[in-house]
Amino acid sequence: MKFIIALAFLAVAIAAPQGDKKPIEIISSNSEMNADGSYSFAFESEDGTKVQESGNQKQVGPKPEDIGTVSKGSYSFTTPDGVVLTVNWVADENGFQATGDHLPTPPPMPEHVVKMLADLKAAGLL
């Protein structure tokens, strides 16, 4: 029984707030949803974090019922060392694509691969 009581006290201690951290306030926020399925929202918090997104419905396949949501947006935040990082992104029928100066990029495609792909395309195999 003493073990169960000690375990209960331990659970309460672990669940208690740690330190004197106050929640980060949202300093601006707006959102819009339209009857056609398009939407947008944005917010900014007091720590400099900014988020914005917009999207709409789009036919993504050959059939009229092949409807999907395409979205685009960005977010930025400040790292602990004071650098502001921004990510711009698009999510559509081609997948999720993010860009940002701090994100790694693939090396250029070797010339022989570029030539091979062009040859395959010219032969109708791609």
Automatic annotation (TrEMBL):
<dbReference type="GO" id="GO:0008010">
    <property type="term" value="F:structural constituent of chitin-based larval cuticle"/>
</dbReference>
<protein>
    <submittedName>
        <fullName>Endocuticle structural glycoprotein SgAbd-1</fullName>
    </submittedName>
</protein>
<dbReference type="GO" id="GO:0062129">
    <property type="term" value="C:chitin-based extracellular matrix"/>
</dbReference>
<feature type="region of interest" description="Disordered">
    <location>
        <begin position="46"/>
        <end position="72"/>
    </location>
</feature>
<dbReference type="InterPro" id="IPR050468">
    <property type="entry name" value="Cuticle_Struct_Prot"/>
</dbReference>
<keyword id="KW-0732">Signal</keyword>
<dbReference type="Pfam" id="PF00379">
    <property type="entry name" value="Chitin_bind_4"/>
</dbReference>
<feature type="signal peptide">
    <location>
        <begin position="1"/>
        <end position="15"/>
    </location>
</feature>
<dbReference type="InterPro" id="IPR000618">
    <property type="entry name" value="Insect_cuticle"/>
</dbReference>
<keyword id="KW-0193">Cuticle</keyword>
